[in-house]
Amino acid sequence: MDYELLTQFSDQYTSKEGALLAEINDFTYRHHAEPHMLSGHVQGQLLNMFSQMIRPRRILEIGTFTGYSALCLAEGLTDDGVLHTIEFREETAAIAQDFFNRSVHKNRVRLHTGNAAEIIPQLSETWDLVFIDADKVGYINYFELVLPQVRKNGFILADNIFFHGEALKENAKGKSAKAVKTFNDFINQRTDIEKVVLTVRDGLYLIRKI
Ligand SMILES: C[S@@+](CC[C@H](N)C(=O)[O-])C[C@H]1O[C@@H](n2cnc3c(N)ncnc32)[C@H](O)[C@@H]1O
Questions:
Q1: Average pLDDT over residues 106-133
Q2: What is the pLDDT of residue 1?
Q3: pLDDT tens-digit series, residues 69-79
Q4: By CB count within 10 A, which of 75, 103, 117, 184 is most buried?
């Protein structure tokens, strides 16, 4: 399969993103040193679709960046729904907050600035959907912190589980790729969850608490 053709096709045959999302994407590619961290058009529409399917009342996102995925996930929230999102870097969080303020979802998005490992235990919510997309070495910790607060039949999505293909190798190199590989093995061995690998972009683990 021609990967470039596949990417082109996915892009062309997926619903277009809204104007604010397109602006966040453009801004991030013009001003940020690592714009590839943003979920982007196709994955963003997938997050939107999952959210519409689940109709979550409480969403937790770990790793806000410039706010793209948060606004995609917020699309399916119930009328009384709230999305909490956590970003470590103050400067990045300020950019995301500016975009949130211009969104129809502005009153339903709560941005927390700081270390996710410290903030998650302070949030006493029951999660319907969790999106793990921060530092890769923290993935197992984030999973263990959130699982008790995820409702039965609730969902966890973890991003970048291929880590550019490196995490699929037996001898994965680099701190993040090794951490993702360990996370993938850890998830695969668990029997208290159902899981499916989605081969979208850099790989998503879709997990259901049973
Ligand atoms: C891959 S980006 C998130 C992309 C975003 N979810 C999207 O799709 O547009 C990861 C973000 O996690 C943040 N981050 C890294 N370590 C963190 C931590 N310990 N706590 C909270 N945020 C963290 C980074 O600063 C970065 O902005």
A1: 98
A2: 85
A3: 999 999 999 99
A4: 184
CA of 137 to the centre of ligand 1 (A): 12
Nearest CA to ligand 1 atom 14: 134
Number of domains in the chain: 1
At 108 the pLDDT is 98
| Structural domain of 196 | 3-209
**Pocket lining for ligand 1, CB < 6 angstroms:** 37-39, 63, 65, 68-69, 86-89, 92, 115-116, 133-135, 138
| CA 146 to centroid of chain Cα atoms | 14
Distances (CA, A) of 162 to 6, 92, 179: 17, 25, 11
CATH of the domain at 25: 3.40.50.150
CA distance 138 to 176: 9
